[in-house]
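#onboarding

Welcome to the new folks! Below is a worked example of what a typical request in this channel looks like: someone posts a single protein sequence, and someone else replies with the predicted structure as tokens. Don't worry about understanding the tokens yet, we'll cover that in week two.

Example request:
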Amino acid sequence: MIFDLHIHSKYSGDCAIEPATILKVAKKRGLDGIAVTDHLTIRGGVETRTLNNDPDFLVIVGAEVETSNREDLIGLFLEEDIESRNAADVITEIKAQEGVVFWAHPFRFGKNLLRGDAIEQLDLIEAFNSKTSASRNELAKQLAREYDKPIIGTSDAHQPFEIGNGKTLVGGSGFGTIKEALASGKTQIADAHLSYDYLNDMR
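Example response:
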């Protein structure tokens, strides 16, 4: 099944997309599911999940947390906001909710790198982000190989037309197995289109 696992809604503060619009565009793009991962809140994911009445489409509730050291970690399958800001504690808090955790755009300009012991605790690494330059995405792929971590591709959409610019093929026999498939790394990047005019890397 094909997912975009990193999408923002109006609850992120730097985005104006309505949850209903996310659903409409994602389905039009042929996705089987999405993760709504707003900055520091699950509110957008919860609202999008509530609005979804399509049994053939899965909405995963998530959140993106910038740590005190400026690393961005994303938790999926969350039911509560993540309160910690220390990287190790963020990972622990996500897993305490039986969530899946991945490192978003590891080499994006202005961000810092996780310590090796924290990387070991990750489930996945975002090796393609449509708003991060190709060279920095390649560094993320190399890092994933170094630590033997499964990879995913995402859009990091902040505008409707960006949804689906990065896609992940998730192995599984149905929506009930998606969490297990992600946690066990049954993933591969399925599609990758940079949002050239909206890259977040400044140099």
